[in-house]
Structures are given as structure tokens and as C-alpha cells.
Amino acid sequence: MNATPVSPVSGIVYPVGLRLLDRRVVVVGGGQVAHRRVAGLLEARARVTVVSPDLTPALEALVEPGSVTWVARRYESGDLDGAWYAVAATDDPAVNAAVSAEAERARVFCARADDRSASSAWTPAVGRQGDLVVGVHGGGDPQRAVGVRDAVVAGLSDGSIRDRAGRTPVGGRAGSVVLVGGGPGDPGLITVRGQHAVAQADVVVADHLAPQSLLASLPPDVLVIDASKLPRGRSMAQEQINALLVEHARAGKRVVRLKGGDPFVFGRGMEELEACAAAGVPVEVVPGVTSAIGVPALAGIPVTHRGLTHEFVVVSGHLPPGHPSSLVDWTALARLRGTLVVLMGVDTAPEIAAALIRHGRPAQTPVAVVADGSMPTQRTVRTTLSGLVQTLADEEIRPPAVWVVGDVVGLLAEVSPPR
Q1: Fewer Cβ neighbours under 10 Å: the N or C end of the chain?
Q2: Each residue of 149-160: pLDDT tens digit?
Q3: Catalytic residue (one of 114, 186, 207, 372)
Q4: How would you label 256-270 residue by residue, b for 16+ Cβ within 10 Å and e otherwise?
Q5: Is residue 259 annotated as part of the catalytic site, yes or no?
Q6: 229 belongs to the catalytic site
């Protein structure tokens, strides 16, 4: 693509948003550039026809379900009939020029991927935050536009650019709740949608395992409520948390429930969703990176590996085997050949390891314990099922820690430490 700024003599660009819902758009070309254009057009819910002898695998995958109509040949005059918009994205300048010329005769705006100066329309660098769309034109220089777009989107995501006026609560009502999974602790591992929700919050109800540095960046007018549940220590009752979410939402506030990991993986997220729904409060769920998968990955341990294991099980270890309230079938878990990931199982490790060995898991099965996953203090120790208890004592492992049982532990590789 031509990165040379276009002469002002040709006129400055007039920014306009095209509403292409169910309108025919023709893309000539089937390569990577065409794929990027098609992706944006489908998001606008246009009726997209691609004219090209060949397609990238990603474009071809859109043809079978009917998302895209494919004309499997080279461009011919008349292919733009009935189009509202056209994109010339082949690697042949002569073909692109012919497409552009037909579009000009038919008074159809056309974007040429190879020559912006010959285009009647420019595709901006586009970023989205919910229903907010940011489009940047860089005076003919696409890299300049991308740089500014990225800076604006990053500012909207981290809250340094405030969008207070545009915060439409979920369901269009006066107040709402967003259940956000913050990931294993490193603020860089929260999803873009999750970070955006936090940046737009009036009230944040946060766990101690949620990314704490995100809270430090919030404006002073945002109310932060500590809803930590310390292991076998102080904790806020779940009923109180539910009541706080409903209370602040009913007061017209945008409430974010910021949790560690994923809200629905041992996070009581469903209880909070049910409480909001019962109170008539609009609620949204933003999934997060669960520590059950993310923390082992950060330590270089895959929970599955081709030819080694076809299954993995995530289990809560907050109750030991034999506890009357435990819902875990430890006997069945011990018979599995795959990977077992134990969360909240530091204090109960002696009982869990003994039960797994007693019911058939070999005592020499490899085990890795990852403490403070994703944080600068993250560390990994390797042992076996029979040596787990002694290793935890020798290494003075305390929560939060995830331990992994299975042959995948032997694949542990050196990875860059959390930054």
C-alpha cells in the first residue's frame, strides 16, 4: 500500500460512516489484504461478494457457511453491478485500475489497496470499544493512522481517555453490573473488554486475586470495595457481595465485579449473576483467563500435548477428600491418565496426594507447583506425587499456588518470566 501522503490538491478526506447492513459490497481479490477488508465488511453485516480465482484458507472458510459469496474467476466488467461499495485488492495494478474505473463510471465508491491516490474512498484504521468506533485517516500514510488509532483505543481501554458520556448501561437501564474475570493477576492478562469495563466503572467490587494495579489507575471518584476472600481468613460473605452489586446498580451506577481468573471457574460468578437477575439488574459476563490453564502455561507447562494426554481435569482442592461437603470423586480422578490441575489445594495437598496414590495414581507421577502465577514473584518447583507434601514444606509454598499432576510436567520448558 502506498504510504506516501496524498497531495492536498486532491482534497482532504471527508470522514463518513457507511451503513452497509444487507447492502452488496464487491471485493476483487482473494489474498491477505482482501481478507482483512472482508472481515470488517462482515462486521458491518454487508452482503459480501469476493471475485478471485483463489482464496486464502481463512476466506474460503467463510464461503461454505454462506457468509461470503465467491465468484471463482478473474474480475470481469460488470462484476460491480448492484454494488454500494467496492474494494480492489488484487496484486495486479491493471486489474485494480479496471475495477476502479468501473466503479467510477457506476458512481460506486471504491478503495484501491495498491494506490490510495487513485481511490475514491480510503479505508481508515479502525478500532472499536463496544459501540464506539474510532476511524483514523493518516493523510495517505496508513502506518501513521494505525499508530494514532492504537493510541486512542489503548487510552479508551485503560481509562486514560474517558468516555463517561458514552457509557450506556447494559440493557439501556439506569444501572448495571459487569462480572469481569481479571485473569491470574498480571494486569496485562485481563481481556480488552474486561479492562474497558473497569475503566468505565463507577463502582468496582474487587477480590484480592484480581489485578490490583488496575485499581490504582482509577479516578478518585470511583468507589472501590474490597470483597477479598482470604484462604481460611477474613472474607466478605457472598450474600453481602450480592447485595452490594444490586444496591449500587439500583442506585444508577455502572458496577464492575472484578474477580481473579474467570468468574465461572470456582469464582461464584453464577451466584452473583443469579442475584442480579432476580433483582432485575442488567448483568454482563466478561470471561477471563483462568489460572487453571494460564498459570501452568506461564510456567511452560501445557495441560494437553499431542500424543501424551487427551484430557485434563480442573478440580477445587479447598475441601480435602472425605470431607462431608466435598463433591469431588477422588477415586475416579485417580484412575484418569491425563492431566490433573488442582486449585486452592495447598493446605489440603497431603490428603489429596494420599487419596490419589491410594486409588491408583502412581506415586512417582510428576507434579509441578506454580506459586504466585503471572506475578514477578512467580516460581515453579517440580516433585512427584509422593514427594509433594515435603516439597511444599521445604519450599514454603503458600497460596495462591496451582499444582499440576501428570506427564505434561516433564515437558516443562524455560519461558520468559512475568514482567
Answers
A1: C
A2: 889 888 887 777
A3: 207
A4: bbbbbbbbbbbbbbe
A5: no
A6: yes
